[in-house]
């Protein structure tokens, strides 16, 4: 059970974004607590990705407030977001396919020796430590990530975020196009991150994944928040589908 008695990690208040005359995000408010996975659900065009891009700094917001640990946050670009320990793991993962796990983990932030040379040994050592925490079965440290499975690639992307002190993760459909075993691997990673106190926004449209992986679900349709399901376990997949398709919250769900 997630402890929601303290200050949320993230508070999104009255978030708004329009493109021309279309309101992509229309007065949406959502919270995220430490150790919580909040599913952000909806069809394509519902506004879920736009909402998360405003938090990640990828898109400027038209209006609304973002608070991190109770303090107003100024987020105008991805660098600002990282300063608040927010990291985004996109579906594409943004990995360099020709490089191995440690080179990807430290890409652009390479460790160097006292003489200024790239310290490959130190980077591999640090990569082994963080992967030992997240995915102890990972052993392909010298393999270019193009040769890794989908779940292993997710492990590398998640390890990169966690190593650089992410406390808030935005994950975009992390199990899309993965088989059952790979999906299980990613689910285990998410549970491990929860146990370490990270907060995760999980963008998805698969209600079964949300039922399995998320504590809470925020359902969007046509830019609006349809409802905030505080305990995903208390609703059915049909309830969630009804919210996505009909845009109507079932009885007992806050709209």
How many structural domains in the coordinates? Answer: 2
Overall pLDDT confidence: 92
CATH architecture of the largest domain: 3-Layer(aba) Sandwich
Q: Number of DSSP helices?
A: 8
Strand content: 15-25%
Q: Examine the coordinates and then state which fold CATH places here, giving the name of the CATH topology of the largest domain.
A: Rossmann fold
Strand order, sheet with most strands: 6-7-8-3-9-10
What gap, in angstroms, lies between the N and C termini?
Answer: 22 Å
Protein structure class: alpha/beta
**Overall 3D form:** globular
Helical content (DSSP H or I, runs of 4+): 25-40%
Q: Compute the number of strand runs.
A: 10
Give the biggest beta sheet: 6 strands, mixed
Unreliable stretches covering 5 or more consecutive residues? none
Description:
With 255 residues, the chain is of the alpha/beta class. It has two domains: 8-85 and 167-248, 3-Layer(aba) Sandwich (Rossmann fold), CATH 3.40.50.300; 97-165, no CATH class. Helices cover 32% and strands 24% of the residues. The chain contains eight helices and ten strands. It is globular and about 60 Å long. The mean pLDDT is 92.
List the helices and strands and how they pair.
Blueprint: E1 10-19, E2 22-32, E3 37-41, H1 48-56, E4 63-68, E5 71-72, H2 78-83, E6 86-89, H3 101-105, H4 120-134, H5 150-163, E7 168-172, H6 180-195, E8 199-204, H7 207-213, E9 216-221, E10 224-229, H8 237-246
Parallel strand pairs: 3-8, 3-9, 6-7, 7-8
Antiparallel strand pairs: 1-2, 1-4, 4-5, 9-10
Helix pairs in contact: 4-5, 5-6
């Amino acid at each position: 059970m997630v402890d929601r008695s303290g200050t949320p990690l993230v508070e999104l208040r009255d978030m708004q974004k329009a493109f021309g005359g279309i309101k992509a995000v229309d007065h949406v408010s959502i919270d995220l607590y430490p150790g919580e996975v909040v599913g952000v659900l909806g069809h394509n065009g519902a506004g879920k990705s736009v909402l998360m891009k405003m938090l990640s700094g990828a898109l400027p917001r038209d209006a609304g407030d973002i608070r991190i640990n109770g303090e107003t946050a100024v987020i105008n670009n991805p660098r600002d977001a990282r300063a608040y320990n927010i990291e985004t793991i996109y579906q594409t993962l943004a990995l360099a396919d020709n490089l191995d796990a440690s080179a990807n983990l430290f890409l652009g932030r390479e460790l160097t020796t006292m003489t200024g040379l790239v310290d490959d040994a130190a980077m591999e050592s640090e990569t082994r430590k963080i992967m030992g925490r997240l995915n102890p079965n990972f052993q392909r440290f010298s393999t270019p990530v193009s040769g890794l499975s989908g779940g292993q690639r997710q492990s590398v992307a998640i390890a990169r975020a966690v190593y650089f002190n992410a406390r808030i993760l935005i994950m975009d459909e992390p199990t899309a196009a993965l088989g059952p075993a790979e999906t299980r691997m990613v689910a285990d990673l998410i549970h491990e991150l929860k146990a370490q106190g990270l907060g995760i926004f999980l963008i998805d449209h698969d209600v079964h994944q949300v039922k399995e992986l998320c504590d809470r679900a925020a359902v969007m349709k046509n830019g609006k928040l349809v409802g905030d399901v505080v305990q995903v376990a208390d609703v059915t997949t049909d309830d969630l589908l009804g919210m996505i398709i009909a845009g109507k919250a079932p009885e007992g769900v806050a709209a």
